[in-house]
Amino acid sequence: MTVDFQRVPVLREVIELAAQRLVPAGTKRNPSFVREFVSFDSAVDDVQRLILADAQTSGGLLLAVSPERGDDLLRALGTHDVPAFAEVGVITNDSSGLISVLP
Q: In whole angstroms, what separates CA 22 from the centre of its chain?
């Protein structure tokens, strides 16, 4: 899978707080748990990495659908009062099993 950080919905204030490292302790620990599963582009900075490791979510935040169904899913989410949604990446044929993160 490839994730494009620029497409991930992030509140402006979160970027400012993460830059000051004002995040939960779990968020600071999470990168070590996923290190072997994620490949970050060299342009992805420490703040972006920290934001993607946010420990304040409850899971179930990522959906995968076939490309031809993507627009239908986005339309459906938009009509059901989902507060934030975006297409943030693609499933690839990369056999490494890594999640690649782009800046």
A: 19
Per-residue DSSP letter, 8: S
pTM of the model: 0.86
* CA separation for the pair 74, 36 (Å, rounded): 31
Ordered by where they begin, the domains of the chain are: 2-102 (3.90.650.10)
Backbone angles phi, psi at 69, to 5 degrees: -105, -5
pLDDT in tens, 27-83: 999 999 999 999 999 999 999 999 999 888 655 578 899 999 999 999 999 999 888
CA 14 to each of CA 20, 61, 87: distance values in angstroms, whole numbers, following the listed order: 10, 18, 20
